Amino acid sequence: DWNARWALELPSQPSGELRYLDLVRAWYEPLWRSGVAVDFVRPDADLSAYRLVLAPNLYLVDDTGAANLAAYTGRGGTLAVGFHSGAVDENCHVRLGGYPGAFRDVLGVRSDEPFPLLPGQRIALSGAVPDGATGTLWSERLRPEGAEEVAAYADGPPPAFGRGDPHLAALDGVPAVTRHAYGTGTAWYLATLPDPATLAALLDRIRTEAGVEPVRTAPDGVEVVRRRGPEADYVFVIDHSGRGADLPVAPGATELLTGKETAGSVTVAPGDVAVVREPRGR
Length: 282
Prior knowledge:
17 strands; 5-stranded antiparallel beta sheet; Rossmann fold; 2 domains; single chain
């Protein structure tokens, strides 16, 4: 959402470190590495085809977009929202009543104060997260209002920051990641930016619970994307690793760049590409 990006990067923000595309990339990378295909859509788009919708940040969102995301979740979808979202409307007017503004009801949480982190500063996380998990860039004082706690701030900043910030130390035990049953769906809130390994673990859990699986199991560094046609699927395999790979494909499939029919698998040479047509109903 262009307006959300523009608003998040205004100089009036509590932190000058907030970059919209950095947050999108941080959430996108572990999905790409897991082989999960991702579409980019607007908040007011038709979301009915998706099992999972991710909003790494929607600082600005209008009533239509917020209502659309809430309705999607209430009908059985899974929604995951990143910190500092829903705070202002389309005119950049602050939504009253506490944060995360437009998403308080669907997320089942309320926040009354943000605590941005300095560059390089981290805050420890505990709970259903990997050992040594930390949050970066942002933290906030969060109170569940129906949501369950998945992870919490474990303490203030690490000793490397001297005496630390007493406000951050006061976050010890405050929820940092929550999960909320809303209608027949589920809404997650990440009130910090977890370190890459922790974010990947959380997104793995979120997508698995939502029933979202990789397009095809593939080695690390091999990208697999599927496009559906009326009579066949088209599987694009790109080797970024430089090692090549063998991938299973459907019986009767054809590798279109060579025109050869496969025998249940396709081999991609190091740094190469394969395009496989898989007939339906075979």
